[in-house]
Amino acid sequence: MTVISLAGNQSLNTLVSTTKTTAVTAIAQESQATAPQSVLVSFGKVESVNTKPVYTITRPVPVWEKASSDSISSKMAGNFTSQATAVRFQGLGAALLSRFTNDGSNFSQSVRQASSIEGLNPVKNTDNQFSLSIKTAGGALVNITLGSSNDALGVQIEVTNGNLSEAERTALAKLSDAFQKTIDGLTQQPPRLDVAGLTKFDSSVLSSVDLHAKLSSAQTLDFHADSKQRSVKSTGIAGTVNISVDMSKQALLGTATQQQQALNQYLKQIDSAKGRGNGNEALMDMFRDAFSALNSNYGEAAATPKNSAPAAVHFSLNGTDKNMLTGLADFNASVTQTPDNTINPLRPDEVDAFYYQISQNTSITGNSTLDRGISQKQQSHLVASYHKPLSSGLQLHLTTLKASQNYEYTQIDDKAESATDIQYRKGALISATLNQTASTSTHVSKYVKGLLESDTTTPAQTTKSVDLLGTLKSHWQKANTHSSFEGYLHQFNLQDFSSVVLLQTDPAQLRQSATA
Predict the structure, then answer these.
(1) Residue 303: what pLDDT?
(2) I need a labelling partner for 83 at 20 to 30 A (CA). Which of 37, 227, 397, 496 fits?
(3) Running DSSP on this structure, what letter comes out for residue 161?
(4) CA separation (Å) from 225 to 18, 114, 244, 344, 415?
(5) Is the N-terminal amide bond of 459 cis, ω within 30° of 0?
(6) Nearest to 198, CA basis, from 179, 173, 220
(7) Where do the DSSP E strands lie in 37-180?
(8) Residue 373, in any domain of the structure
(9) What pTM did the predictor assign?
């Protein structure tokens, strides 16, 4: 305890100056103490140190797991002064992985307020936590954990099942920025899913990357990536994003141009679904970012690591085949918005909801390249419902009073499918077809002063079929190459159908393409 007294002829300014200087000095000297420190200030003639103080200033002193001046501890000291989760974790994830540049050993550090519970583990028993688990091709397991709560902050690096090679430490350090971007994205408001960098690892050195996160805001994240699969699941107050990508069928992957073309088309459809179904903007941005991340950077992560099981597809597809496919890996992606039945207290059965699902599934059958079949199906489904005012300039404020019941309640149910089927017999292309459908249903109930004024359902549907083989033969005949059709397929630049086979969710646009 530090006692500061003011003699009778000292000024108030002298008191303030003396108090600040002495208090800072006292806290600095006693920073390793485990109990709160006090600064006592008294007025009048100093008789003894037992003079009763006029008031007491109590300042909790942080308690560290161990004294250290390393860069991670220094960063923790600065971050701990803030209560904001984003600031608490600022730069910490990157610092922990960057440590592998020079050091592959275990590490642990924590800091807590002296008034917090003794024995509390600031790494595991926290409200906000990120746990990164990485397996190396050599068999080692690296676990990195960050935890934060109101009165504690802790980090830990744990390496088990072997020591890390220099190449493995370098590969781990290269993920530092990606890990930090994921942390920064999830801790901001509204949260974002920035996981693209976590897919960019060298699978000849690192075999898998897993990340689990939970925040006191009820936001969670589970990420996984290896040479066979990628997945993201994130749940929060707004809803749930769930995406998985099958990386095992290497034969499906097209050129970078094809992949980007297909990805752009799907991103446009995601944006269209958000607008048509009145989806939550922040949730749909998370879905869009995660879908793009998992369907990009196939290269390094798609490479088959050493000593892995053989791929499901044991023969390659030729250029003709790939020209009739999307170029993307198979995937299943969905976003579900948390339903809200509080919009209209007079009719709680009218729920604002949003569900959107898209997928691609490809089967490759046959015993050899000469006799094989390829079937690729893309699907989408949008189910949504929402309230809106009768005029765009009005604010929607529904109560139990009928006078407030002026609105439209819209229900959406849209489906689309694109199916490509390719068949070879004895090395000859005998069939290649494309069948597409798109349907929409819009049901609008209009209420004026609580009375149902109109109730309409507007359906639309379009079907399109294309004989891809017939189109190829037509091009061959027009080319007049004096080559057999089989020779033409192998020797010439063929028409690229990869944009034609892409899923089309709008019946009007599908109808337009069918007549083009």
Answers:
(1) 42
(2) 37
(3) S
(4) 59, 40, 10, 43, 30
(5) no
(6) 179
(7) 37-43, 55-59, 62-64, 107-113, 128-136, 141-149, 152-160
(8) yes
(9) 0.85
Query: What string of DSSP letters covers 374-388?
Result: EEEEEEEEEEEEEEE
CA distances from residue 85 to 34, 203, 215 in whole angstroms, order as listed: 25, 32, 9
- Two tokens, residue 100: 């592998």
Q: CA-to-CA distance for 269 and 285, rounded, in angstroms? A: 13
Q: What is the pLDDT of residues 403-445, one digit of tens each?
A: 999 999 999 999 999 999 999 999 899 999 999 999 999 999 9
DSSP letter at 327? Answer: S
Asked whether residue 416 is domain-assigned, the answer is: yes
3-state percent breakdown (helix, strand, coil) of the chain, nearest 5: 30, 35, 35
Residues 336-364 as b or e (16 or more Cβ within 10 Å = b): bbeeeeebbeebeebbbbbbbbbbbebeb
The answer to whether 199 and 229 have CB atoms below 8 angstroms apart is: no
Find all residues with CB under 8 Å of 18, minimum gap 6, and list them: 4, 6
Q: How far is CA 171 from CA 103, 200, 229, 231, in A?
A: 13, 10, 20, 21
Amino acid identity, residue 253? Answer: L
> Token pair for residue 259?
């992949």
Q: What is the pLDDT of residues 367-405, one digit of tens each?
A: 888 899 999 999 999 999 999 999 988 899 999 999 999
Please check whether residue 275 lies inside any domain of the structure: no
Q: Which helix (H) or strand (E) holds 262?
A: helix 256-277
| CA terminus-to-terminus distance, the chain | 87
Q: If we measure between CA atoms, which residue out of 124, 136, 130, 128 comes closest to residue 95?
A: 130
Domain boundary among 16, 43, 59: 59
- Closest to 129 (Cα-Cα) out of 172, 185, 85: 85
Q: Is the separation of the CB atoms in 146 and 89 below 8 Å?
A: yes
For residue range 252-303, list pLDDT tens digits in order: 999 999 999 999 999 999 999 999 999 999 999 999 999 999 999 887 444 4
Please check whether residue 115 is in contact with residue 33, taking contact to mean a CB–CB distance below 8 angstroms: no
CA dist 264 → 87, 285, 296, 503, 510 (Å): 34, 15, 11, 12, 17
CB atoms within 10 A of CB 79: 19
Show the tokens assigned to 243: 């995406």
> 3-class DSSP state for residue 176?
helix
Q: Are 206 and 136 in contact, with CB atoms under 8 Å apart?
A: yes
Which domain does 463 fall in, by range? 304-516
Residue 25, phi then psi, degrees to nearest 5: -60, -40
Give the pair of three-digit tokens for residue 232.
Answer: 């993201």
In a domain, 392, yes or no: yes
Q: Which of 41, 59, 77 is the last residue of a domain?
A: 59
